[in-house]
Design a protein that fits this description.
The protein has helices at about 15-25, 35-45, 50-60, 90-105, 115-120, 135-145, 150-170, 185-205; strands spanning about 5-10, 30, 110, 125-130, 185. The protein has about 210 residues and is an alpha/beta fold. It has a single domain (about 5-205), classed as 3-Layer(aba) Sandwich (Rossmann fold). The chain has a five-stranded parallel sheet with strand order 2-3-1-4-5, with helices on both faces. Helix 6 crosses helix 7.
């Protein structure tokens, strides 16, 4: 069996990030999230702050809202001699390059960054969407952060909207469309441990083992 790469998209507050790290530790593999930005910065030579600024800028770009779509990811990098070298979509392209290289090198868990789309067609890809009710996500967010009730509701809604818009902007697809994923799991019903075990059970059924 080749490398197994578990990508996790998640509602904010659903515990998807925690579950991803739990799964990686249980399987003895690495988990990548924000590390991808640093690795993309090191690979491209582009300052890491520009990657973070790009995300913030996209949040305020009119094209990025509603049904707007950006330059859908095609996998081609723009060379340093181009004016578009540090453009938002090329910064995403470099992150995608790192994601593909990680998938070739090792079995791992990758959280966010539209990794399921970047790795689409990879025979070892296991794409997961972790979701839960808004009420549950708000409750979880309050327990883990210093929020008041109204503030956290707005933050959860805003964060999920950004993740949805980010996904649509770079992939042209809908973030919450179940057809984009192998598994859609309700962490509110299953709990964090149960969600992790469901992912492991799927891996065992599909690949015949969970020794990856």
């Amino acid at each position: 069996m080749g490398n197994v790469i578990i990508t996790i998209a998640r509602h904010f507050g659903s515990g998807g990030r925690t579950i991803g790290h739990m799964l990686a530790e249980d399987l003895g593999i690495n988990c990548y999230e924000k590390e991808i930005i640093k690795m993309a910065s090191d690979d491209s030579g582009i300052n890491e702050s520009l990657f973070n600024q790009a995300d913030e800028k996209l949040k305020r770009t009119p094209l990025f809202f509603g049904k707007g779509r950006g330059p859908e990811y095609k996998g081609k990098l723009i060379t340093p001699d181009s004016e578009e070298f540090v453009s938002d979509h090329n910064l995403f392209n470099y992150q995608a390059k790192i994601i593909r290289e990680l998938a070739e090198k090792e079995s791992c868990v990758i959280i966010g960054r539209a990794a399921d789309y970047v790795l689409k067609g990879n025979p070892g890809l296991v794409s997961v969407f972790v979701h839960a009710s808004r009420e549950y996500c708000v409750k979880q967010a309050i327990e883990r952060r210093a929020f008041t009730g109204k503030d956290v509701e707005k933050f959860v809604e805003k964060t999920d909207k950004y993740r949805s818009d980010f996904y649509r902007y770079y992939t042209g697809q809908e973030w919450t469309d179940a057809r984009n994923y192998d598994l859609c799991l309700n962490s509110e019903r299953l709990g964090f441990d149960g969600t992790m075990e469901a992912i492991k059970a799927y891996i065992k059924v599909r690949f015949g083992t969970i020794q990856i």
